[in-house]
Design brief:
This protein is an alpha/beta fold. It is built from 18 helices and 26 strands. The chain has three domains: about 230 residues, Glutamine Phosphoribosylpyrophosphate, subunit 1, domain 1 (4-Layer Sandwich), CATH 3.60.20.10; about 210 residues, Glucose-6-phosphate isomerase like protein, domain 1 (Rossmann fold, 3-Layer(aba) Sandwich); about 150 residues, Rossmann fold (3-Layer(aba) Sandwich), CATH 3.40.50. Strand 19, helix 11 and strand 20 form a beta-alpha-beta unit. The longest helix is centred in the last third of the chain and has 23 residues. Bound molecules: 6-O-phosphono-alpha-D-glucopyranose.
Length: about 600
């Protein structure tokens, strides 16, 4: 989603800004722009790819201070005018902003009455005019930003530059910003990934902070007044630039990275002889695990689906009530927070605004949240303090794949750990741990021979709608399969618990309608078989994901088999053919697999 990169130092800013934007591209965006100061402020912005912006300014705009932005439209359509930076009417202030100004609609007419001419439909533009207004009244740049921010309601991660000033002012409220401090130069980014090639010394802005950034120096202030502490952190991990290697797309590369990523996630965390797992970062002793009355998991998108598998595993192995929540709904429903319950916030990016708000709501009401996160040092990881890193490595394709398998594995390991502290026997634990350790090799074997995926692609690529069905742990896998196909191939998809299909979606079935069924060899398989027959009776074409050698294959029109595992771990295998189905269908339909339209990798607005 929206990304920010800024530079102040001795080098030419434009090439650095372009490189910064390129590093933020994976988050998803629809337009981009830069503002560079060379005495006066020069702005270039454009809809489309960063490369198109770069070709618009082939010789660069001269200057050593600049800010830049990738925009993912919220308020106002995808137009050059709505792209950031926004500039004041006297061209003396420019701003890039992530987040949403909730009272922009009220402020706009007031500013217009004062003679301001708006050039875009965005909520962000009010900020630049408010800041310019206070500058006109004689305030300093810092005080103008402060006064403007006191007038607005909403969320922001923003950078402001001023004509004739050698500084960038940044502020944060709910939308991340990191300042990287180099030798005689400073960098600002909404994502530490864009900074690590320049410096490992960084300041993560906290909500309510304002920073005045100059070349190699930072002054920290509070929005409420006075100075703030300057906490310099060492950026821990540099994933570097993930390159495609032998793969044509990141999505395919990441699907194939799953065996190795899963090894990273489980390595050192399973205790084979004790039939147990140890997620040290949770900092929960067996005694504490015994006392937890309720586990509540939260996430969005793919992470939510991992939560849904995790909650079933926790209930099954630990016999403790567990629920999975749509994070975007959570805080708005005035949730009851039991301080003794355990909350787990699950997120690949660690930046999803909805998940972050849910975390804050829980903490505000006295609850404790642990993070289950991929990106080290991300906002959710830091907000939770304790938790589990899933160690997937960089995930660049918008459609999440290897993060799903690792989140699911992390939650299954947690369910074994809490299970062993409560009711799970050592033998059962040993069996689960043994099966879990075998999955990376099984994934490799499956990926080497994925079965008739292209036949399945043929069955779905022209469908009006594809129905995905599964029961138990396969119900979230069905949802994940539907999400993948919808995200990258733009085919309307429905996912239902298999039996619930009779209560609605069955009305959609016509001869030839593709139905994808996930039916591992578990205690629910025979029930699912009945649901398959109900679909077949209406002429549906069944694409069946099942375990090798299972006789349920006879129900399939297209049968795709995965290696055999214990039922609870089956999502780690059954999801992979669904990822491949989505990927290959998108290719057949000529879709931009890694950057699907309208979607963003990191959704930093609520
Ligand atoms: C976006 C991405 C999805 C992702 C979801 C949650 O919608 O496109 O792939 O599952 O956000 O993201 P998170 O980073 O919190 O896991």
């Amino acid at each position: 989603m929206c990304g920010i990169f800024g530079y102040v130092g001795n080098r030419q800013a434009t090439p650095l800004l372009m490189e910064g934007l390129r590093r933020l591209e994976y988050r998803g965006y629809d337009s981009s722009g830069v503002a560079v100061i060379n005495g006066q402020i020069e702005v270039a912005k454009k809809i489309g790819k960063v490369s198109e912006l770069a070709s618009m300014i082939p010789t660069g705009i001269e200057g050593n201070i600049g800010i830049s932005h990738t925009r993912w439209a919220t308020h106002g359509g995808v137009t050059d005018e709505n792209a950031h930076p926004h500039i004041s009417n006297q061209s003396n202030v420019a701003i890039v902003h992530n987040g949403i100004i909730e009272n922009a609609r009220q402020l706009r007419p007031r500013l217009e009455k004062q003679g301001v001419k708006f050039l875009s439909e965005t909520d962000s533009e009010v900020l630049v005019h408010l800041i310019a207004h206070y500058l006109d009244l004689g305030s300093t740049p810092l005080s103008s930003v402060r006064r403007a921010l006191h007038r607005v309601r909403g969320t922001w991660g923003l950078c402001v530059v001023f004509e004739g000033e050698d500084i960038i002012i940044c502020a944060r409220n709910g939308s991340p910003l990191v300042i990287g401090i180099g030798e005689g130069e400073s960098f600002i980014a909404s994502d530490q990934h864009a900074l690590t090639q320049y410096t490992d010394r960084a300041i993560f802005l906290e909500d309510g902070e304002i920073a005045v950034v100059s070349a190699g120096k930072v002054q920290m202030h509070l929005l409420s007044g006075g100075r703030a502490a300057q906490n310099i952190t060492t950026l821990e991990e540099d994933w570097g630039e993930a390159d495609l290697g032998e793969f044509p797309h990141f999505m395919l590369k990441e699907i194939h990275e799953q065996p190795e990523a899963l090894r990273q996630c489980i390595s050192g965390r399973t205790l084979s002889s004790e039939g147990n797992c140890k997620l040290g970062g949770l900092e929960l002793s067996s005694k504490e695990l015994q006392k937890i009355p309720h586990v509540r998991l939260l996430g969005c998108g793919t992470s939510l689906h991992a939560c849904q598998v995790g909650r079933l595993a926790i209930e099954k192995l630990a016999r403790v009530p567990a629920s999975a929540h749509v994070a975007s709904e959570f805080r708005h429903n005035d949730p009851i927070i039991d301080p003794k319950a355990l909350f787990l916030a699950v997120s690949q990016s660690g930046e999803t605004a909805d998940t972050l708000s849910a975390v804050k709501e829980i903490q505000l009401k006295g609850g404790k949240v642990r993070g289950v996160v991929n990106v080290v040092g991300s906002t959710i990881a830091r907000q939770c303090g304790r938790g589990v890193y899933i160690h997937s490595g960089p995930e660049q394709a918008v459609a999440s794949t290897k993060a799903f398998t690792n989140m699911t594995a992390a939650l299954v390991m947690f369910s074994i750990q809490i299970g062993r502290a409560r009711s799970l026997t050592r033998n059962r634990g040993r069996d689960l741990v043994k099966n879990l350790n075998a999955i990376p090799d099984q994934l490799e074997a499956y990926l080497a021979n994925p079965g008739p995926i292209m036949e399945a692609v043929k069955a779905v690529k022209e469908a009006k709608m594809v129905l995905f069905l599964g029961r138990g742990v396969s119900a979230p896998v069905a949802r994940e399969g539907a999400l993948k196909l919808m995200e990258v191939a733009y085919i309307p998809c429905l996912a239902y618990p298999a039996a619930e299909m009779k209560h609605g979606p069955i009305a959609l079935l016509e001869p030839g309608s593709p139905v994808v069924v996930i039916a591992p060899n578990d205690e629910l398989k025979e029930k699912t078989r009945s649901n398959i027959q109900e679909c077949r009776a209406r002429g549906a074409k069944i694409i069946l994901i099942h375990e090798e050698g299972d006789d349920i294959a006879e129900e399939a029109d297209i049968s795709i088999s995965v290696p055999i595992t214990t039922p609870l771990l089956s999502p780690l295998l059954t999801v992979v053919p669904l990822q491949l189905l989505a990927y290959n269908t998108a290719l057949e339909l000529d879709c931009d697999v890694d950057r699907p339209r309208n979607l963003a990798k990191s959704v930093t607005v609520e």
